[in-house]
Amino acid sequence: MSSNQRPIEAGIVRDFKVNLSYGRYLQLDQVLSAQHPVSVPEHHDELLFILQHQTSELWLKLILHELRAVQRQLAADDLRPALKGLARVKHIQRCLTEQWSVLATLTPTEYAEFRSFLGTSSGFQSYQYRAVEFMLGNKDHRMLSIFDDDPAARALLEAALAAPTVYDEFLRYLARAGHDVPVELLQRDVTLPHRYHADLVPVFVKIYENADANWEAYEACEELVDLEENFQLWRFRHLKTVERTIGVKVGTGGSSGVNFLRKALELTFFPELYAVRTEIGAVGA
């Protein structure tokens, strides 16, 4: 009769006095001891709430890591690895969006049991999330003051504010490749948010209508659209999770909650890449 066990092979490492173990490599003692519920008495569901946000921050750290590499690669006219990086970011975004389904299992009654213990802490204060927004084009210098008490976070955001965005680097790449990108976009103040520029749309029309001759640029355009769409899906899922959990209550960080999150859906990173869709195949074009 089967023991329903598999043998532990002789070659499997057992001695970690010298050898590097999985736990030490990942510093699991620190990672797994970083969850400290503050509710009194401790509420069962607070661990879910903490882990949801901690894992989101880890994924955001990886997104920042990948987007910085994409910026460098675009600046070096190295488009293929930049496309690989954007594809990886898209997969990370899907993980982040799916995580909301786990938090959505937290009912309004369960959340109310520990929400008051959160004080003024809020996801609004996620400096990594703000840095991702800055790197993609939604720059807002007013956000810096929220991090005056955290010099490292503020420094990270100041660097992202002062640097060209992923879209800036892409447009510069296109210009170097011979596309007629408006010069004012190439020389714009990169500390400001990108705003829609009608003269850029014809550049993308030519790329889309001559995809075979501009395949890599064409593919990059679609990768960027995927990225923005994923970001908007994340924002929407965030909004709906908050709505089903606290309704229209004011956020713990002082925002209007759902109403504030809804306004974020109006923000865009790459407006010309959406505008081009109206032009392609239009009568008289």
Annotation keywords:
285 residues; 58% helix
Q: What does the model show?
A:
The chain is mainly alpha-helical. 58% of the residues lie in helices and 0% in strands. The protein is built from 13 helices and no strands. It has helices at 22-26, 28-32, 46-75, 79-103, 108-112, 127-136, 151-162, 166-176, 183-186, 201-209, 215-246, 258-264, 271-279. The model has no long low-confidence stretch (mean pLDDT 94).
Topology:
Layout: H1 22-26, H2 28-32, H3 46-75, H4 79-103, H5 108-112, H6 127-136, H7 151-162, H8 166-176, H9 183-186, H10 201-209, H11 215-246, H12 258-264, H13 271-279
Structural class: mainly alpha
The main β sheet shows up as: none
Fraction of residues in H or I helices: 55-70%
Distance N terminus to C terminus? 75 Å
Helices, by number, come to: 13
> What string, H for helix and E for strand, traces the elements in order?
HHHHHHHHHHHHH
Approximate shape: globular
| Rg, alpha carbons | 23 Å
Mean pLDDT: 94
**Unreliable stretches:** none
Question: Which range does the strand content fall in?
Answer: under 5%
Summarize the structure.
The chain has 285 residues and is mostly helical.
